[in-house]
Amino acid sequence: MTYWAQSPRLAVQHRPDTRFIWNQTNDALYSEIHLSPGISTLLAILLNIAGRPLTSIIGNGLLLGSAISLCHSLGLNRDSSDWDIPEAEKLLRTKIWWAIFVYDKWSSLAYGTPPQLRSGQYDVSIPSLEQLCGPPAANPVDYEATSVYLAFVSLSRFLDRYLEHIYDLDKALPTGPCDLEVLLTQWEDSLDPSLRRRIIRGGDRLDIPGSANLRLAYLYIKLLLRKWELDAEKAASAAAAVDAAPGHATSSSIPMRCYLEVRRAAEEIVLLVQELKAPQLGDYWLPLLTFAFTSTPKFLLRCALETENTIGGIAQSMSLKLARDLVDALRGHRQRGWDVGDLCIAQYSDVVEKLAASTSGAGLAEQPVDVPELQEYLSTSVPDIDELFPSLWDMFGTT
């Protein structure tokens, strides 16, 4: 239903009521889960949780949990390459497994719940290009699109390593931001040269189906790594202040370099959104990446409050400007029917305008920043990544 207008044959027809059809399919799906679940049930669940706009967070989580349980019951977590079943069934099982894997990891990041699939509990290999679409000459477009999909799957495997640290309550894993930065660089180097240029540089090169979605996911992970580095600097600074001898002053300030690197990572997301054209807007987008758009302005606004000392400084800060640019770009895309940024618009459209208005009054330029007063504009009714991981992302709290 989301892509109804993208089909020349369907666009001239009346589109049925989306909510009515959604309710009917949900009723049928839940009935099948309880009565006779099978491979077809997994396909139906994938179509359900991939729906846009993203409105049922708890419902999607329940369906994904059911799908993972069913995957284990049907043995999809095991390598079936030497099983006595048709090759087509082997490939179907592999494709379903990795689709479930992708949604498990990105749902974990978006919803703030631990991933349900753990490394060491499956041995399914990622399918090859030839397995999925045949020889390259068969259909070049399908071949390139499949390359993007496989790159997204491998990026999701990297995300799994990141989530292992996030949800390690004992903090027994030695992995740090620098270690993951190396792994991300290795992922970049593993890409085909042509695809690597598209994903790393972006711009007008995002013409392969799924490439814009992959670039957003890549930039989002880079932003999270930069946040992690900044959080590590804050923790080290706080520890140094505690360990300092009484009467000896210590520098507890965080290097501006850390803020600039995170802001630069956020700016890449803003630029990506501004550069999207109609072909990219009508392309596939993982609905869960809507949380990339809610996390970006929230960090930018808090970054402005943390790095500026005066009201005038906040009003003129690049962080506030980037947040406004992102919201404005998402508004423009919404007029074309693109709903991936709806949550960001709902949460931050008024917030950004109010914060800008509150810092632009005459005679306020040199007034010191009242952080608690301004932070009231950052309160939102829907949690996002910063609130779902308070121990890691609550970098701008005051004491």
UniProtKB/TrEMBL annotation:
All residue ranges annotated as the Xylanolytic transcriptional activator regulatory domain in the record: 60-133
GO biological process: DNA-templated transcription; nitrogen catabolite activation of transcription from RNA polymerase II promoter
InterPro entries hit by this protein: Carb_Metab_Trans_Reg, XnlR_reg_dom
Cited Pfam families: Fungal_trans
Superkingdom of source: Eukaryota
GO-annotated cellular components: nucleus
Keyword Nucleus included in the entry's annotation: yes
Gene Ontology molecular functions: DNA binding; zinc ion binding
Keyword Transferase: no
UniProtKB keywords: Nucleus
PANTHER family listed in its UniProt record: GLUCOSE TRANSPORT TRANSCRIPTION REGULATOR RGT1-RELATED-RELATED (PTHR31668), ZN(II)2CYS6 TRANSCRIPTION FACTOR (EUROFUNG) (PTHR31668:SF10)
UniProt protein name: Putative transcriptional regulatory protein
Organism: Colletotrichum shisoi
Highest classification ranks of the organism: Eukaryota, Fungi, Dikarya, Ascomycota, Pezizomycotina
